[in-house]
Amino acid sequence: MTKLSQERPRAVVVGSGPNGLTAACLLAREGWQVDVYEQGPTPGGAARSAPVLGEGTTVDLGSAAHPFGISSPVFRELDLEAHGLEWAHSRYAMAHPLDGGRAAFLSRGVERTATQLGEDYSRWRKLHHPFTRDIDQHLDNVLGPVIRVPKHPVKMAAFGTVALLPARALARATFETEEARVLFAGSAVHAITPPDRPMTSSFGLLFSALGMARGWPVAVGGSQSVVDALVSVLHEHGGTIHTDHPVEDLAEFEDAEAVILNLTPNQVARLKNVELSRRAKRIMKNWKYGPGSYKLDILLDGPIPWTNPEVGEATTVHVCGGLDEIQMAEADAAAGRVPDKPFVLVCQQQVADPTRAQNGETVVWAYAHVPQGYVDKRAATLILKQIERFAPGFRDRILSVVENNAQDLENWNPNLVGGDVGGGATAGVQMIRRMPYKLGPRLYMASSSTSPGGGVHGMPGAWVARAVLRDQE
Question: Could you tell me which CATH number the domain at 87-218+290-412 has?
Fold first, then answer.
């Protein structure tokens, strides 16, 4: 151990996504020497932004809307807004158009959302009000390891009773209108698994409650702004980021008291001189990745011409038909088939953040779940067709399109294995048993492969920083 390391403990973070940066910030704040190593030219992982649709455009290359970001306990603790982060909201947190010009809307506030659902007013309110009212206590419970004593056990018991159910079954049993059913099931699809699977209601409840309690905002200036704020915190506390520095051998960091990997199991397996615990080896051996993604960044000569104009007032739009169509689309992707009518997630960031384009043009972010590693351009046609179905004339407004198939996404960010944006499948046992925070002596993992999973919230990094500090006591 070097003299410097004896005087001041050193932590190395491999990978500069929000989870890695969060861990780095917390340890640097505690007086550690922190070095972050990033193989790419800029930090940020899957939360980067760039003008890929031309000068004057801001395109989120990965994550786009941030219900967890604005609600993250650790982001609040780090006071990212004091470091330049600004959240922007639209009238509706989320919209789901249906055929014939109908649409469902998730508004900020349970009452406002329920009022739009007609005969399902009371049912929607009864299901969601307890979780929206106590959202911070529920976040304390769920934004961490599943298998632990919850901070608020009574709230956890109430959540778990509903959360264990398949979202499709709960939507059918609870609601009469297709609007309420798709609003709930669409939120559940963020699990990246078919909504007839057990525990998918947990995603439906949580995403809906977050939207009604805090909104689904975008970051002004792009998701890169979240990263820039974290980098600012890190630099304020003396941390260093080394870009264009791929890491292949952990022997490079023998002097560090802690090495934190902002990676998924596939990347960890490729590293040299990795000493894993038996538990970590066992989980890694059986680790499975989920469906891939096919992403389109689209520049239009104006807003999307939705049949229902109010859909244009939502930053996030779930583009699919009714409950059965959602089920079929996600079941196809999970089974390795390309859905004829995919569930398309569209983000219209400019509704909240007009800086995303100039001269009346509109940047549109869209992706669909596809089979692992899928590269066929047919997916792009299906995505565009699905949007056109609810916005006739949409394709006529297109000025340019940048396509990224599942393999392109992995090439851009190796953590997105086969286009899986969740760091590993969230179906079955992996929804509960994620990778451990501690992999072996001095070695830790802070990524979407650890609890609580994907999303820009930094919580895996927060839990790992706590583990590192506890081990050094």
Answer: 3.90.660
Give 343's DSSP letter.
Answer: -
301-334 per-position pLDDT tens digit: 999 999 999 999 999 999 999 999 999 999 999 9
- Give the residue extent of every domain in the chain: 3-50+222-287+424-471, 87-218+290-412
The three-class DSSP label of residue 346 is strand
The CATH code that applies to domain 3-50+222-287+424-471 is: 3.50.50.60
* Average pLDDT rounded to a whole number, residues 206-227: 97
Its pTM stands at: 0.95
* Cα distance between residue 51 and residue 238, in whole Å: 30
Confidence (pLDDT) at 108 = 94
In angstroms, the CA 293 to CA 375 distance is: 10
DSSP 26: H
Cα-only R_g, the chain: 21
Tell me the pairing of strands 344-347 and 314-319.
antiparallel
Distance CA 435, CA 277 (A): 12
* Average pLDDT of the chain, as a whole number: 95
Per-residue pLDDT at 4 = 41
324-354 burial string, b = 16+ CB within 10 Å, else e? Answer: ebbbbbbbbbbeeebbebbbbbbbbbbbbbe
Q: How far apart are CA 391 and CA 306, in angstroms?
A: 4
Outline where 237-390 has alpha helix (H).
265-270, 278-285, 323-334, 378-390
Mean pLDDT of 401-420: 97
pLDDT in tens, 6-49: 588 999 999 999 999 999 999 999 999 999 999 999 999 999 99
What is the full DSSP assignment across 444-467? EE-STTBTT-SSSS-HHHHHHHHH
Non-local (6+) Cβ contacts of 59 within 8 A are 49, 50, 51, 52, 53, 222, 297, 356, 363, 365, 402
Instruction: Work out the average pLDDT over 166-189.
Output: 97
* Torsion angle of the four alpha carbons 379, 381, 386, 390, in this order, in degrees rounded to the nearest 10: 160
